[in-house]
Amino acid sequence: MPTLITGASGFIGSRLLCDEAKGLLRPGKQLPGARVGDLLDANSLRAACAGMDTIFHCAGYAHAFVSADPDAH
């Protein structure tokens, strides 16, 4: 079953990642077999999700609660 994991380089996402799953990473990050995309860019997200049956959304802003920006998370 084709699976995509957002936040694949993060604390939780990296623990879910296995040989059968593809990680979604931001541009500039590297991981073998990963797809590169941006959650805020609909076209890159659509391309990354193409052919996937399951998506684990583990991406997030880890330090949102210490940010002055209430919309950071």
3D architecture notes:
With 73 residues, this protein is of the alpha/beta class. The chain has one domain. It has 2 helices and 4 strands; from the N terminus they run E-H-E-E-H-E. It has helices at 13-16, 42-49; strands at 3-6, 21-25, 35-36, 54-57. A 4-stranded parallel β-sheet has the order 3-2-1-4. Helix 1 (13-16) links the parallel strand 1 and strand 2. It is globular. 21% of the residues are buried. The model has no long low-confidence stretch (mean pLDDT 86).
Structure, briefly:
With 73 residues, the protein is of the alpha/beta class.
**What is the CA-based Rg, rounded?**
13 Å
Helix content: 10-25%
Mean pLDDT: 86
What fraction of residues sit in β-strands? Answer: 15-25%
| Main sheet summary | 4 strands, parallel
**Sequence of strands across the biggest β-sheet:** 3-2-1-4
Descriptors:
73 residues, alpha/beta, 4-stranded parallel β-sheet, 4 strands, 16% helix, 21% strand, globular
Topology:
Layout: E1 3-6, H1 13-16, E2 21-25, E3 35-36, H2 42-49, E4 54-57
Parallel strand pairs: 1-2, 1-4, 2-3
